[in-house]
Amino acid sequence: MHFLLATWGSLGDLHPYLALGRGLHARGHRVTVCTGSIYREKVEREGLSWAALRPELPAPEDSAVLMEKLMDPRHGSRRVIREWIMPALSEMHADLSAALSDVDVLITHPILYAAPVAAQDQGALWVGTFLAPILLPSVFEPPIPPSHPGAGWVGKMRPPLSRWALEAGKRRIRPWAAPADALRRSAGLPDAHPLFEGMHSPHLNLALFSRALGAPQPDWPENTVQTGFAFYDQLEGGSDEALSAEAEAFLGQSSDAPILFTLGSSAVMSPGRFFQLAIEATEALGQRAILLTGKGVAPPENLPSTILSVPYAPHSKIMPRCRAIVHQGGVGTTGQALRSGRPQIVVPFSHDQPDNAHRIARAGAGRVLPIGKLTKSRLIAALKTLPACAEKATALGELVRSENGVEAACNALEAL
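Now predict its structure.
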């Protein structure tokens, strides 16, 4: 069979589809990944075909100012949808339609609002995917809105109130999707909120995250299969990447495991004082630390010997060797942190990050410290509480490691 995996966004949005693509390719299927041209070489290094998808993403070196706008806690999600996706909806539809010319199954990222129309136009079987629980919002486990990263109480609302709040939120943001509504009407698709029910496939939906982060809910689409995370953490692609010699040497210097500080692949472009506060807090606590500061970024100056700064390290290799992880809460980073079994402090910026953060806290595996409230004293206080989270973090790590998201997803896809 020929599978087309279509995705758009950061590395956290690309990597699960590369993991799925590798799994399907290993089973003898033909796989094409439809995404931005900045990822073409990485896709092809995995032995997969590539197809273009607009809107084009800027190169990382040109992204700092833009990312500061898109990671804004209050307005970031609106800007992504209204300023990036909706103006390019017709181009997205054209690219998907062209790529679908000889495809059996289309597998889509949930932000590709033109995908249901393209699938109908080309007669392709369409599978929806959802990388984080907030993308399958439930009245039984209501999500934390991106615009209010400190509103952990939302997740504790009972169904009658949460149902009202969720529907009110959907109505409020539906105008963002006016071009998608118009495209759906022109294609004769049933009326459905383009950002929510409109991305639920009538054939199969894959919840590509672990039960450790969000358990199945009664109001998910009936044809939803929860697989667990589809892990992939290679920076260049094409071969498994090891830790750098510098990181290995630092980890081997002492039996005292360091604290890992990372901001994934998006927030790292606009880190604010995150890394400076990480340095100050770990020095004050007398701890060791590793900072993952991003590719092409100059490391902080005059670091003490107890702190190492490296551009990148595969999360699966470095996280299990650290005592705790402080990160932004993107679902890819969160999944890797859960798998490591280490306690976490989640410093959410925007999008799915606040919801992921509060799920970690409710599960007892870590703490939440929104970026707008991050200070040296608060970071120190949160780090001091993490030993109390170690037992629960260990148990959740065992659960995540018992799942095989790629295998489960491939089984469900082949069952079609």
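DSSP finds 16 helices and 13 strands in the chain.
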